[in-house]
Amino acid sequence: MAELAQSSATPIALRDITTRRRFKTPNFLRSPLTIVGLVIVALFLFAAFAAPLISPYDPNKQQLSLRLKPPTADHILGTDQLGRDVFSRIIWGARISLMVGLVVVISASIFGTFIGLVAGYFGGWLDDGLMRVTDIFFAFPSLILAMAIAGALSPSIENAMIAIAVVTWPVYARLVRGQVLSLRKREFVEAAESVGASGARIIRKHLLPNSISPLLVQASFDMGGAILIAAGLSFIGFGAQPPLAEWGVMISDGRKYVTTHSWLPLFPGIAILLTVAAFNLIGDGLRDALDPRLRGNL
After folding, report:
1. Domains and CATH numbers, the chain
2. Stated pTM of the model
3. Can you tell me the distance from the alpha carbon of 103 to that of 91, in angstroms, rounded to the nearest whole number?
4. How would you write 138-173 as a 3-class SS string?
5. Phi/psi of residue 79, each to 5°?
6. What is the model's pLDDT at position 292?
7. Which of 11, 146, 212, 248 could bond to 235 as cystine, CB 3.0-4.6 Å?
8. Alpha carbon of 120 to those of 126, 191, 212, 218: distances in Å?
């Protein structure tokens, strides 16, 4: 048994070294588009955290004498139909949108990863049952299902986050299950099983660490997707509610003035576009840095 444990330590150790070295910062930063994405996200993160300091006006302060003013030096992005500063509302909206994306991705990835690990490792009837449940969620378009859930729970930003997380977790479950199925017959897993390691320990120490790379890539893409769905729910009235400074709400309020005061829906729409595109660029960079086939190492 001692010889077996000693012989099994080598592939496990080699696996750990491979996992730690899989991500290389120079490869991640090699693409100019990835750097652009990082800069954009960093700017929005700074705006979200420093909103009370850099916002020139109260985002909910109404000044009817200044309603529908075009961009000027005092209001660089103009004012809305209630005289509120559009630039200030976009800054505060960044805090809400990034919070939505972060909460959705963390909650959906944790739950979906747990389901995928259990289904992929134990297999059998448990795998079949869990995957049929995920198939039910995949049968509906994400936005339609999120609308139904948010509407049933009553419109609010909190319920919108719950709805988006519910429709997002199956992606992680499928992704992790596929990773586990490809890893469960690898030498380091068989070595761990041969020395009596429990299923929970194998999942925690060996399968989960080797599934992190695709999870990070998926999470980067889903950050942008969650922000976009949240804005869509708010636009149609199932998400954030006025007077909350949220980008989808701002576009919904400004659509009535799109032909006469185009800056009202335009600027929050640009904010959504830049944020979603930036997270997609980061996801592409992570995929290139974490996949050795795309680095030309194979």
Report:
1. 2-54+79-295 (1.10.3720.10)
2. 0.83
3. 19
4. HCCCHHHHHHHHHHHHCCCHHHHHHHHHHHHHHHHH
5. -125, 160
6. 56
7. 248
8. 9, 18, 15, 18
